[in-house]
Design goal:
single chain; 136 residues; mainly alpha; Arc Repressor Mutant, subunit A; two-stranded antiparallel sheet; 6% strand
């Protein structure tokens, strides 16, 4: 079994790792982020907007502009980053192909819900500072 992210979620994590590796308050240009983390420039603007709306990054316009973390990396967890970028967090029913509804839960709902909860708990327990210290 694999846990996967959309491209947008993947690029959001990469972007935040690039910013998390910088001393708090340091600004990185979008061009540098894209080059360091192999994120296509055309996606990066959307990802940075998502992260900004979530209160995770702050942008600064102008010649010396760029992006920086809004709070220290130790105060940001991976779940916040993923939730900022992932649009489809709704769980699909394994048996029905759509969300379990008011008519009742499918036979495997509780097991898959528990697995999803465990993944989310692990992401919440892992800070950006934790992963930013590790080699790429």
């Amino acid at each position: 079994m694999r846990v996967t992210l959309s491209r947008r979620g993947d690029y959001a994590v990469r972007t935040m790792v690039a910013l998390g590796r910088e001393p708090f308050g340091e600004v990185l240009s979008a061009t540098r982020i894209a080059a360091r983390m192999d994120v296509p420039s055309r996606f990066l603007a959307h990802v940075l907007a998502d992260l900004g709306r979530a209160g995770l990054v702050v942008g600064r316009a102008g010649r010396s502009g760029g992006y920086r973390l809004a709070v220290p990396a130790a105060e940001i967890n991976l779940l916040q980053i993923v939730d900022a970028a992932e649009r489809d967090v709704e769980a699909r029913c394994v048996l029905r192909g759509s969300p379990c509804d008011v008519a009742g839960r499918c036979a495997v709902h509780d097991a898959f819900w528990a697995a999803t909860s465990a993944v989310r708990s692990e992401l919440a327990a892992t800070t950006l500072a934790d992963v930013s210290r590790r080699p790429a």
